[in-house]
Amino acid sequence: MITEKTYLIPTTVNEAIEIAKSNLGSFKYLAGGTDVMVNRFQGNEKSTCLIDITKLEELKGVAVDDEYLRIGALEILEELKFKKEIVEEFPMLIEAALSVGAPLLRKTATIGGNVLCENRCLFYNQSEWWRESAGYCLKCDGDICIATQGKKACFSELVSDTAPALIAMDAKIEIADADGTKIVKLEDIYTGDGVTPCNIPEAAILVAIRLPLNRGFKTSFNKLRERESLDFTSLTCAVATDKNGKLKIALSGVDPKAVVVEATVTDDKVDLIRKAVKGARAIDNDMYSRKYRREMISVYLNRSFEKLKI
Fold this sequence. Notes:
Blueprint: E1 6-8, H1 13-21, E2 27-30, H2 36-41, E3 49-52, E4 62-65, E5 68-72, H3 84-89, H4 91-97, H5 103-106, H6 111-115, H7 128-134, H8 162-168, E6 172-177, E7 180-185, E8 205-212, E9 218-224, E10 235-241, E11 246-252, E12 259-264, H9 269-279, H10 290-308
Parallel strand pairs: 1-3, 2-3
Antiparallel strand pairs: 4-5, 5-8, 6-7, 6-8, 9-10, 10-11, 11-12
């Protein structure tokens, strides 16, 4: 049986949304393609309609917008280090962006795509014949989580590296859909459900990321992975403090959503570490063990507190 496939290139956000609405359940937005195309190659993504959004000018550019720095969702990860506004106030975002994948991938991958990258699991992100042999899991139409043997929850992990850095600095995002554009806190889009990790409407488009200016952020960023030049994260830890004494911790790689702890610089650090570790529902679905990754949360947070002198 031959299935017809469609590749469309809209030139406005509204046009892209209308196309998406006409193909609900069978489309995928495509920008850098470093996540979508790999998943298609593995058979984890089988949409018959690809909507190429790289021509959407509304999703490009870095500019000051009132009290925020607005970063278009199509900005390339490798290019962020050349943006003066980001270098001066948000260097942790550059550090996070440059930790993603390999150099060649970063020259194509977008910041919006990284924020919305699909959750990953050792038992899911394999070739189709491997998954068929091992058994299909909850994330690919099976009836059991292979990692936990449970039938109720998927614990595939959020592996975005830019998301924790952005969340720690109180980032918001602009989301456009048929009803208009709304602005929400970045951490609020992650559901904690590995099967459906984001709660934005299917046809909606992430337009931009907004970072608050003049907060005087001091930051610390750490990432755990087997090979520094390539692998997805096993734990990303971002910590930020501001001039008013606010402290915010954000983790990825150890839970289906971002683990977030908000506090002040005077709060008990042992208690903050305990909250972060408790919030991380890591399971053994990664090359590193659950026990080791949870231990590294404490290591990274202690390093961050020492670096930030708090």
